[in-house]
Amino acid sequence: MNERPAKAADVGRAGTGARPVHTGTGLTATTAVRYALVPVHRLSLDTVARRSGLHPDLIRRLSALGLIDADRDAAGHLVFDPTAPAVLARIQRLRSGLCLNYASIGLVLDLLDRISLLEAALRATGTRSENPPWT
Fold this sequence. Notes:
The protein is of the alpha+beta class. The protein is built from five helices and five strands. The strands form two sheets. A three-stranded antiparallel beta sheet has the order 3-5-4. A two-stranded antiparallel sheet has the order 1-2. Helix 2 crosses helix 4 (about 85-100).
């Protein structure tokens, strides 16, 4: 679950460069390298808890389960992206609206992210399917 696609906010803050990587099969793959252009503002655990309305222990648990991305600062405290309250709201909507457990929420989030990437790729190519979207 840690292999989430890049968020639109991440792309705007960081430049990317493609770097060829040689695999043992004779094929060449390309990896993206990100360079921070500006310092990224991070939110503390207390700030995220206050903005999302959730208890800090629940946020720690969701971070340990890999449902929300968190890093540690120099003092060892959890810090989050500015989008963390929105991600937590999405998790809570899935939990309460669909009565999903946290393991299945991770799967649903990964599938929703994958669907978003595929829809964006279709929009970028200008290709439309014959069928209307199911959503």
